[in-house]
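Q: Can I see a sequence and its folded structure?
A: Here is a first one.
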Amino acid sequence: MPASPLLAATMLACARIGAIHSVVFAGFSAEALKSRILDASASVVVTADEAVRGGKTIPLKSIVDEAVGGCQCVQRVLVSQRTGAHVPMTPRDLQLEQAMSEVSDSCAPEPLDSEDPLFMLYTSGSTGKPKGILHTQAGYLLYASITQQYVFDYRPGDVYACVADIGWITGHSYVVYGPLCNGATTVLFESIPTYPDPGRYWEMVERLGVRQFYGAPTALRLLLKAGDHHVHKYDRSSLATLGCVGEPLNDEAWVWYHSVVGEGRCTVVDTWWQTETGGISIAPRPSPDDSTPKPGFPMRPFFGIQPVLVDDQGNELHGPNVSGNLCIRHPWPGMARSIYGDHGRFMDTYYRPYPGLYFSGDGARRDGEGHYQITGRVDDVINVKGHRIGTAEIMIHEWLKQQW
């Protein structure tokens, strides 16, 4: 589905009745959607007639029709209206808004255990086969809400804008679940940051009075190149916190984000976390007010997170000025509980490489002050069923399995 209030409502409706939702990015192909439907044995698909992105339309219903053609598990396709375009409807399809008008607007919540599944979200694995990362009810919601509150210094009445697509974990945790749990006004961003011009984000900030803004380094670097005039023509005085996520933010972009967008007065929080962690794991905030964030450094572990750096043999690296494979020592509320339908793969990927630790797949450096900097993926060497082999070997292994 496109980024829309109806998408958020659909997620929350699933949570209310105890159904596991799996949001798929609207830009994926029919084949990618089909693989996720089949892996999850999904019985209902919710989509829209079309999506609008950067002035172009994406034929979502056609993509879904192609995907579900070979999926016997799908019993119903619900189709919402985004553009009003005419789309073919089959006996399996229902027009969503019409179906909603024919049922009661009251629905008692289903009582669930704290460890019952809430949602799954697919992330590509090192082998190329998507992994259905499974998150549960209470722990995930607690972690999403508390990180949104403390990392971004959210206060009642603030307008909070995370511009991530809801199809990714950032959209789940920091567009929908975290902000709404805290009672925040949360902004849904549709389209791309350069349409109709590179001032799109900052026009939104002025128009809505956004106090916290959470974006991606790739977009920030693109906007930096477009020139400062797209920033300066909009009032950004409402901004207090500028966040970024997705990859390390390089020094040039960090300085531009802080000095140009934030006018030198806004805190920049460069965050590190993963689909599997459920929420932010390392960030400059919360911290004392006189603490200055470092460009390129997420810096500090969040409450309850205990980072560990180990070498390839699993030996812990102590002290300052060391680099190694980034692991986490103790459990935390937002951690994923499994890969849907393949718990063995879950253990092989995250817990068997370094017994007793969660292995993130990232490398990191701890500096002289004990602050952490992410150095990039270390998946060129991965532990699979106790054997350390290279990514190329894994790809060959998977290809051979498919042939036989």
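Q: Show me another, different protein.
A: A second, unrelated one:
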Amino acid sequence: MTTVQSPPVPPTAIRPKVVARTGLYAVLAVNAAVVTLFAVQAGFASNALVVIGRFAGLYGALLMAFQLLLVARLPWLDRRIGMDRLTNWHRWTGFGLLWTLVGHVVFIAFGYAESSSMNPVSQLVDLAETVEGVLRATVALVLILVVGGASARWARRRLAYETWHFVHLYTYVAVVLAFTHQVAVGTTFTASSAATAYWYAVWGVALGSVVLGRAVLPLWRNWRHQLRVEKVVPESDNVVSVYITGRDLDRLPARAGQFFLWRFLTKDRWWQANPFSLSAAPDGTRLRLTAKAAGDGSAGLRHLKPGTRVFAEGPYGAFTTMHRTRPESLLIAGGVGVTPIRALLEEIDGHAVVVYRVGGERDAVLYDELRDLAVAKGAELHLVTGPPVPDRLAPRELAALVPDIAERDVFLCGPPPMMNAVLGSLRELDVPRTQIHFERFSLAG
């Protein structure tokens, strides 16, 4: 594969991650201010509890629209922030949304009950039976409670990804129900033509972003590139590389370090989407993924036939040289996490040190390629073997391998326990956080 050199990053360049993050915060803050302005212009109810409840509902609607933006997988955001961080924001925004909507229901129920002879529960039932849209909003809240429960750590660990993902699809039903509730009884929605146009625009942009990022772009790119399996190459007893070709791949905006959600369109696999990183820098003629047999999806790659059609969503991820801050780099890989590291080494410029951590030499997948690339690019390559304990990438050991570690960008990919240990070592060695780059390849929505 042709080596693609990345341009040097100016030391004073504004980091893309900061630009995107600041932009998202600014968008949320401006819209919160606009929502507050329209609510004030619409006037206040005489009951303070009802006022608080209405504000909670408005901010909940805004957070719901923001959630859709976070899961839309828009390329501009994904390349700068990364899907794992967007997923983390999605998680915490989701819990904020949950409590905001619960507050909306509680304050509204108690507020109306204060001016009637009913208790709050009876008041809520009466509202659901007599006021248009309230029953739909109640159903939406129940769905969001179910999704929130499925997202709790104790539940997430016990649910299969497919089950968790299926439950999350009900979020879109909740969005539609909540929107119809807002249209029916939202005082600020109908208070002025400007407020009505604003809320239609907010929901239009949010839902449009999801349709664009999750449907239109993947369908268009796959129609354009017509991806197919070229060949399947075993790398070891349980690791295989799949080479994929297509049309106009030089126009596919993929970079070393990124990953795709791959669907291989066979009778028994078309419905499975598996995230695999590129294990070689894109060269405009083919793509390559390398995966270890860890489940039915990855184990079945070995049996793919040349010519099999491929549907790929992506590229995704901010684990690229776009985020470099230093002229020299340290690339740390663990196990099959070497795949994006190997691709990055092919693309990266400047002096690089590669540390590859495996249990034994026979586990060092793609090591021959790494060695050849290191020789060609003048990089240092260290193969670190042995059991997990003692930690062979502890602060002292890392400092011995790379004395100037604090002056380098660090790219890290591997199993979660290994990554957590290395991140701890980097903190102890005072490596600035802005120079540490990693992704956990988690998916939102």
